[in-house]
Each structure stands twice: as C-alpha cells, then as structure tokens.
Amino acid sequence: MASYGLSAAILGACVLAIHLIGAEETLYVAAVYEHRVILNPRPGVPLRRRAALEHMEKNLHAFAEQGAHILVFPEDAIHGFNYTRASVASYLETVPDPEEVTWSPCADPGRFSNTEVLRRLSCMARKNRLFLVANMPDRQPCSRASDPLCPPDGQYQFNTDVVFSDNGTLVARYHKQNLYFEAAFDTPPRNKYVTFTTPFAGRFGVFTCFDILFREPAVTLVRDMGVRQLVYPTAWMNQLPLLAAVQFQRSFSYSAGVTLLAANVRAAALGMTDVNYFCLVITE
C-alpha cells in the first residue's frame, strides 16, 4: 500500500445555533465541515486513510470546543471518488445495520473485522461528545441463491452515510439511492428511509447529494414522514443555470420548511465549492 496517504486541507467550516419553536423551545449547535480531497492519481493503488481521518479529527475537536452537538462531514471526504468497482475494494468496510445490532466500534473494536474507519469515527464522536455524520464505502455480502439482484461478485457496494451518537454508538446507516455516475457502487435493491433521534433536537433524516433531486427518499422523508431536520453529506458539482449548490439546496430548505445541514467537499476544478447550512425557524 502506498505510504503517501490521502491528504486533505481544511478550507471552511461553520457553527450555527438553530432555534426550533414548537411545543417546546430547543436550542442546539450544528457544524458542517468542508475540506479539499486530494484525489488518488492512481485509483488502482490503495492509499492510507489515516491522514484524512486525523485531519478531520483535529478540526472536529475545535467544533466541539464551540459547543457543537452535531457535526456533518461531506460525501467522499475520506476516500475520494475516482474509483471503479474493483479499485474501491480496499476501502470497503462492512457496516452493520444499527436496527439489528447495537454496537460502538470505539468501545468494542474487536466485534467485527476490518473496521478501521468505523472505529476512528466512533471514537471521534465519543471523545468529543457529539453526534457525527460521515460518508464511506460499504460492502454488504449477498448470495444469488437467495437474492436474484445480488451482483456477480457476491457483494453489494454502497455509497453509505453513517451516524454515531455522542457515546460512539452507530445509530444510523443510509445507502445512497440515487447514484451520479458512480461506477464503484450499486443502487440499493429497496428504498429505505433512514432517521435517527437525538436528545437535543429530536429526529433527523438522512440522504446524500444527488438524492435531493428525486422524490425518494427526500420528499417521502419530509412530506410523508414529517421529518423537519436533515443531514446531507454531498460532493456537489455546481452546474449553471439551475444546479448551483447554494441555489438548489437553499430552495429545497425553504420550500420544504426544513433545516438542511449540507456539507460539501472542495474540488474547485470540478465546481465543488460550498459549505452550506440552511436553517429555518419551524413553527408547529
């Protein structure tokens, strides 16, 4: 494995207070994180993820000192995004379903094998006492004997968001439903609507980047399930005239009447530029 690693540079972050008005008043502090991912020039050669994780942890501590209750990392922030199905394989970890398994990778690192990223993210959340949302590649084994949609290599590969509670427990896992030219990943065979609950602000919904342009899962979460707070890792490429990140994501937030915590990666050459946080006062 190459020794130079996947490096990153912090370019921007923000911390904001969100005031929800309803049956009770709630004040919490949310942070969204942005950094520039230096893409692997040779995607077939695995790189170490340690540098990116250590850089993210250093900046996470600064947010925690400002009182952040929840932090959202961008899509593709740990591993980059220029991979094929084969070349992303060394970055895959199997993320268990938190609806079936209660697990803190930080407190119980030996329970499952090959969980370097899950363990580091869990420990970041636990150490800094905040909810943490991150994006990573996920492998889910399958068999064509029981699942006719199982890929020929015997595993699904998903673009996955993970959420850890402030004690490091994995509380949510979301597989991106609407892929944007992502050859490394599979579309989930079934729609799933993922939420998690916090002690400081109640329920949050989860979806990723290109999902926001489709009914599933975004509209169902908001309109049918009544979710009013959303975490949104993204690697958004600004496209004129109607698909600039701030323009589109703010419009979604305003029209749906929701708080959208959107964290974008930085890749100026690809039009990825903005950290976004769109917060509304919600009246019941």
From TrEMBL:
<dbReference type="InterPro" id="IPR012101">
    <property type="entry name" value="Biotinidase-like_euk"/>
</dbReference>
<dbReference type="Pfam" id="PF00795">
    <property type="entry name" value="CN_hydrolase"/>
</dbReference>
<protein>
    <recommendedName>
        <fullName>Biotinidase</fullName>
        <ecNumber>3.5.1.12</ecNumber>
    </recommendedName>
</protein>
<comment type="similarity">
    <text>Belongs to the carbon-nitrogen hydrolase superfamily. BTD/VNN family.</text>
</comment>
<keyword id="KW-0325">Glycoprotein</keyword>
<comment type="function">
    <text>Catalytic release of biotin from biocytin, the product of biotin-dependent carboxylases degradation.</text>
</comment>
<dbReference type="GO" id="GO:0047708">
    <property type="term" value="F:biotinidase activity"/>
</dbReference>
<keyword id="KW-0378">Hydrolase</keyword>
<feature type="domain" description="CN hydrolase">
    <location>
        <begin position="28"/>
        <end position="284"/>
    </location>
</feature>
<dbReference type="InterPro" id="IPR003010">
    <property type="entry name" value="C-N_Hydrolase"/>
</dbReference>
<feature type="signal peptide">
    <location>
        <begin position="1"/>
        <end position="23"/>
    </location>
</feature>
<keyword id="KW-0732">Signal</keyword>
<dbReference type="InterPro" id="IPR036526">
    <property type="entry name" value="C-N_Hydrolase_sf"/>
</dbReference>
<dbReference type="InterPro" id="IPR040154">
    <property type="entry name" value="Biotinidase/VNN"/>
</dbReference>
